[in-house]
Specification:
This protein has about 80 residues and is mainly β. It has one domain. The strands form three sheets. Strands 2, 3, 5 and 8 form a four-stranded parallel beta sheet that branches. A three-stranded parallel beta sheet has the order 1-4-7, with no helix packed on it. It has a two-stranded parallel ribbon with strand order 6-9. It is globular.
């Protein structure tokens, strides 16, 4: 888990192989800041927080690009809950 700002690229497929991240218990990133995340599956997530949570990132800023990212599992909370962001 990255709690600070992620500014790089995470591509979950190279065209022949696809990759997935399993069993997340909290968002993978605290913040996406000008980042690119593509072709990624988040599987069997089980996230529970009172507020401000999601599967991929708590927030995305500054032209962050998210494309073809999927999550399955469960996410629960009381307020400010997002599927991916």
């Amino acid at each position: 888990y990255l709690t600070g700002a992620f500014t790089g690229s995470l591509i979950g497929s190279d065209g022949t192989k696809s990759y997935a991240i399993y069993d997340l218990k909290k968002p993978l990133f605290g913040e996406l800041n000008g980042a690119t995340v593509e072709k990624l599956s988040l599987k069997d997530v089980n996230i529970s927080a009172k507020d401000d949570t999601a599967t991929l990132a708590k927030e995305a800023n500054n032209n962050t690009h998210i494309d073809n990212v999927h999550a399955d599992g469960a996410i629960a909370g009381e307020r400010s809950i997002g599927g991916l962001v």
